Amino acid sequence: MRLHTKITLPKAEMVEGTEAWKRFNGAMQKVIAVPHAEIQRRIAQERAESAKNPNRRGPKRKVKPSASLGPLG
């Protein structure tokens, strides 16, 4: 005999009209308040951390050779 328990999540509140616009506008103002340089820094940090994982799926990022280690050096 197999028991099945169903987990129910509360449904999202449906908001329309001016209240929906106020919520949307507030969320967009929070997103826009973050400087572009900060977003770029966070993206670069996340990419650097994910590149360190040797078990990551998909194509691996190529390591760029250092300019100081040339054919003569």
List the helices and strands and how they pair.
Elements: H1 18-32, H2 36-51
Written overview of the protein:
- This protein is mainly alpha-helical and 73 residues long.
- It has a domain at 26-50.
- It contains 2 helices and no strands.
- The protein has helices at 18-32, 36-51.
- The termini are far apart.
- The model has no long low-confidence stretch (mean pLDDT 81).
What structural keywords apply?
mainly alpha, 2 helices, 42% helix, 0% strand
What percent of residues adopt helix (DSSP H or I)? 40-55%
Please state roughly what percent of the residues sit in beta strands, choosing from under 5%, 5-15%, 15-25%, 25-35%, 35-45% or over 45%: under 5%
Which secondary-structure class do the elements indicate? mainly alpha
Output the radius of gyration. 24 Å
What is the residue-averaged pLDDT? Answer: 81
Number of strands: 0
SSE order, as H and E?
HH
Overall geometry comes to: flat
Termini separation (Å)? 72 Å
What does this entry show, briefly?
The protein is an all-alpha fold and 73 residues long.
